[in-house]
Design a protein that fits this description.
With about 120 residues, this protein is of the alpha+beta class. The chain is built from 4 helices and 7 strands, in the order E-H-E-E-E-E-E-E-H-H-H. A hairpin with a 7-residue loop joins strand 6 and strand 7.
Length: about 120
């Protein structure tokens, strides 16, 4: 089964526009643990599209602004889910069932909660 893939275009905040930087609280000098030109698989936070990615220099998933990447394979899993909540900090969310249907699963990934990490892998 295939999933959408993205290529890393930039590894610092200088590759991101000022709207995105101000919404996510990063700076142009922010360095991300990614490798330029690496292909990653992907998942709207504070009005900015982010991808959930295990960076080249990481062991666990983290969220990165979509502007750091270009889509190189547009196909997504057939079993993916989508939800949109206009008043939520995470207003648009799509991905595997637990990502979309389990409250705060995305936060649990960032907090490195074992159960969420197991589901992700």
């Amino acid at each position: 089964m295939k999933i959408m893939k993205v290529r890393c275009l930039a590894t610092t905040g200088s590759g991101i526009n000022t709207f995105t930087l101000s919404n996510i609280g990063d700076l142009t000098k922010t360095e991300y643990p990614l490798k330029k030109d690496e292909i990653y698989t992907q998942v709207l936070f504070k009005n900015v599209l982010h991808y959930l990615i295990i960076g080249t220099y990481e062991d666990l998933p983290s969220w990165y602004p979509a502007e750091l990447f270009e889509v190189v394979d547009h196909q997504v899993y057939l079993e993916w889910y989508y939800n949109y909540e206009v008043n939520s900090v995470v207003s648009g969310l799509w991905g595997y069932k637990e990502m979309v249907m389990t409250d705060n699963h995305y936060d649990d990934l960032i907090e490195r909660i074992d159960g969420a990490i197991e589901v992700f892998f």
